[in-house]
User: What shape does this take?
Amino acid sequence: MDQPELIARAEAVGARLAAIRQRITDAGGDPEATRIVAVTKGRSILTAAAALRAGLDELGENYAQELARKVDAVPGARWHFIGNLQTNKVRNLAPHVRLWQSVDRRRLLAEIARHSPGAEILVQVTERMVPRRGGCEPGVARRLVAEATDLGLAPVGLMSMALPGPPKEVRRQFRLVRSLADELGLALRSMGTSDDFPLAVAEGSNLLRLGRILLEDDPPPRRGQRHDPDTTTLA
Assistant: This one.
């Protein structure tokens, strides 16, 4: 790996992280108590390594193959799976995933329990179902939390993605998730992405999933160099 480039990228990530922590404070949150997952989906191993070097050891991926290719190349990272997950991918991911953030059905719970006994999970909640977006309605979420415990898993919180709308509506959605987490006695509220994290923090989020605002997009490859986010290796 190009060490000068790694150092430069890590410094840039660190500067953006400092600005994000200030925005967390401005939103009424505690930056020391707010965990940040650096979303490395679609980004190179160099960028993932830069995030780790900048002090962000929790990294998030949406795609099983991409996560599997980065695990060995970025030692020391704690991986979160944050996207829609097919049950047939669980077996291969189980040795690597520290927190399953997008659990929204019993069959997926059962598969995680089978291949990763005792794993920590977040149940993904949505106020209403939308095609091609994951999540389950609050009543289903209550049942999944209970069933996760019965299966020997550790339901530690809820995860949600706000549906599009004005800030007032987005805050209302986050407030519903926080209320449900409180009702169920769950400590983690994974709410907030690059576009809406200050609103999420204001409504009680303590786990943010940040990609673009934190890592930006990978720069285009230099002339004559092929860009492939999955083939860079750590030296």
Observations:
- Residues 223-235 have pLDDT under 50 and may be disordered.
- The CA atoms of residues 13 and 215 lie 6 Å apart.
- DSSP finds nine helices and eight strands in the chain.
- The longest strand covers residues 97-103.
